[in-house]
Design brief:
about 650 residues, alpha/beta, Rossmann fold, 6-stranded mixed sheet, 21 helices, globular
């Protein structure tokens, strides 16, 4: 067991946040922590890390090194990226330097026997420490994490010049290199592109320690978790399995609890009704009292937690467009309104009525610019955009810049729908869970999630038959994302969206358009299908086999020469029988076999070491893990055969 928290209770003032929460974390656990915004997820993480106090309960940490990635992780911004990522290995580097220093002291001579013994003992301890930390692989690990986390070629870049998202990525990369026993991550997938996410998921799947992660990324939770812990109604409930399994188990649990609660409530009502009717009559009084006693003995079943209901999204329209909704021809894409910074040339896109198209690509490639550009109908300076008749566009801007910050929530929607009554406007807002006093808030005071719900409410009232959505699931918690997924799946109109939400991309689009540096590539189906077609089976990287013997083996072989019959004068031969001569021939044959095997295996070992520096390997944690495992096997074989070779060679020398 890595950590055990029992009956943790935490309040902020009069507000109870966590109520007798218990959590056991075993080695190799992969736990996803979820819950609505504000339920106490980050608070619980801080408590487990010792950064936040708690009112009552107990936490037991079993000699565990805990690494915690905060939402705004701290790094030394004065360092370069390379220097920052070398920091986890500083103690091993110092051990290595001291080992080299001891070697020089011994090689120079002039030391007493006691000093030699002392240095030898220190050297042995340093070697054990260095090898226990896998110090020989430090540079390979650093290179792998740098490439995987998107910092390839940025060794000398100062951390202080990075963006906020890049600093968080650097903090995560550093934490991965520290390899704590318990890795605690708070929203680690923010600011990561598809390539980096895929690498991180591979890395975490092979991680030796335990992982506790807070994330709204459902695809990520599906890929790495083996259990989901949900904070609901201030309690923690654990479900075995990944996120997809959690959805099923949560529904089953809720339905079961409701049935048990309803059955008990009905039973209690009948018992009370009987008692009320019969308590006053002498002939039935005892029977009525026994019914009341039965109620007192009952262990009351709790109803399902009364959680905040998710928003209800529903996109419909009144008018069908023509079949050919959108035709984009030879469009040049620019990053700015003045059309001075060119992103892509000659874009061609066709979208039919009812299609659901997702646009993906690396950050900065021009996805949002494309959505804005295609909304400008007619001829462009370079290219043409043609929308079909009766197409009515509804646009969701991820910045939600069209919302007036000076309006109240109620006025923002009402000003756009002047013919609606206040009741109709408040009902529409209520469907997205903007209720009560919240409708009188200035929109500038809304949280990201609340503002997104208002934007979707505006969009629903427009009743557009073609939706253009830019990162629609940003700012939403998991429950709201699930509601949005369903609404977009049910939408009968045409959808064009940009998204990094892989779970959404798996469930909604009919095809995916990927913007690359050379144009647009099309893939039929959702995200998983895109991956299957995009990523071919990884080839095994090989290097031509070298034929040279290892330097180590050659050096030792010079010290111990294995003689042959021609090396010994006939008068000195002491074979007393054919059996002894056969044994000697067999032993010499075994020595030659060992030499050949050692030479071959050490050549293979060097080939694997060379492969670790190749970009296609160093950026893929699974490929690195395969080669490191093979290298360990080869080292074990070499050591075993080398000891046998030394033994046989030594015996031969003694006999001669």
């Amino acid at each position: 067991m890595v950590l055990f928290a029992e009956n943790i209770t935490k309040s902020f003032g009069a507000d109870l946040i966590l109520d007798h929460v218990s959590l056991k974390i075993e080695n190799k656990d992969r736990i996803g922590l979820i819950g609505v915004n504000g339920c106490g997820k980050t608070t619980l993480l801080k408590i487990l890390c010792g950064e936040e106090s708690y009112d009552s309960g107990e936490i037991s940490v079993m000699n565990t090194r805990i690494g915690y990635l905060k939402q705004n992780g701290g790094i030394d911004e004065k360092n370069t990226i390379s220097r920052e990522l070398h920091r986890p290995f500083e103690k091993y580097n110092k051990a290595w330097e001291r080992m080299r220093s001891i070697e020089k002291e011994i090689a120079n001579g002039g030391i007493s026997e006691s000093e030699y013994a002392k240095l030898s003992s220190e050297y042995e301890k340093l070697t054990d420490f260095f090898e226990s930390g896998d110090g020989y692989m430090s540079e390979v690990k650093i290179k792998s994490v740098m490439n995987g986390m998107g910092f390839s070629g940025m060794d000398d870049t100062l951390a202080q010049t990075l963006s906020g998202g890049e600093k968080t990525r650097l903090a995560l990369a550093k934490l991965l290199l520290e390899e704590p026993d318990l890795l605690i991550l708070d929203e680690p997938t923010n600011h990561l592109d598809f390539k980096t996410l895929d690498w991180l998921e591979q890395y975490l799947s092979e991680y030796k320690g335990a992982i506790l992660v807070v994330s709204h990324d459902r695809y990520f939770l599906d890929k790495i978790t083996t259990s989901i812990c949900e904070i609901e109604a201030k309690k923690l409930v654990r479900y075995n399995g990944n996120y997809a399994k959690y959805v099923v188990l949560k529904q089953e649990r809720t339905e079961r609890m409701q049935k048990e609660y309803d059955a008990q409530t009905e039973r209690i009502a009948k018992l009370k009704e009987y008692a009320e009717k019969n308590i006053a009559r002498a002939s039935t009084s005892n029977s009525a009292k026994s019914r009341l006693a039965e109620i007192d003995r009952m262990e009351l079943v709790e109803p399902p937690a009364q959680l905040v209901k998710p928003p209800v999204f529903n996109f419909d329209f009144e008018k069908d467009p023509v079949k050919d909704v959108l035709h984009v021809e030879s469009l040049d894409l620019y990053a700015d309104e003045e059309e001075t910074v060119e992103l892509l040339k000659g874009i061609n896109i066709d979208v039919l009525r009812g299609e659901k198209v997702a646009i993906i690509g690396e950050n900065g490639v021009g996805k949002s610019s494309l959505l804005k550009s295609i909304q400008k109908r007619g001829k462009h300076r370079f290219g043409k955009v043609t929308w079909g008749r009766n197409v009515e566009i509804g646009y969701y801007d991820q910045q939600m810049s069209g919302i007036d910050p000076n309006n109240t929530v109620l006025d923002e929607l009402w000003n756009r729908n002047l013919r609606s009554t206040e009741l109709e406007i408040r009902t529409a807002l209520g469907r997205v869970r903007l209720t009560g006093e919240n409708v009188y808030k200035k929109t500038a005071m809304l949280s990201g999630g609340e503002k997104a719900k208002l934007a979707f409410c505006i969009l629903m009232k427009e009743k557009a038959n073609t939706l253009i959505l830019d990162e629609p699931s940003n700012h939403l918690d998991i429950a709201a994302k699930e509601a949005l997924d369903k609404a977009l799946q049910d939408f009968k109109g045409t959808l064009i969206m940009v998204s990094h939400d892989r779970y959404l991309l798996n469930r909604v689009p009919d095809r995916i358009l990927e913007i690359t540096g050379h144009g647009i590539d099309e893939y039929k189906g959702g995200y998983d299908e895109y991956l299957r077609k995009k990523i071919s089976p990884q080839r095994t990287v090989t290097t031509p086999v070298k034929t040279m013997d290892s330097a180590r083996f050659e050096a030792e072989r010079k010290k111990i020469k294995t003689p042959t019959l021609s090396d010994v004068p006939n008068v000195e031969k002491k074979y007393r029988s054919k059996k002894e001569r056969a044994a000697e021939v067999k032993k010499n044959s075994e020595i030659r076999r060992l030499e050949e095997e050692i030479s071959f295996w050490e050549t293979e070992l060097r080939s694997l070491e060379d492969e670790l520096t190749l970009p296609e390997v160093s950026s893929d944690y699974r490929e690195i893990a395969k080669r490191c495992e093979k290298m360990d096997e080869l080292r074990a074989k070499i050591d075993e055969n080398y000891e046998l070779w030394m033994e046989l060679s030594g015996e031969t020398e003694k006999e001669i």
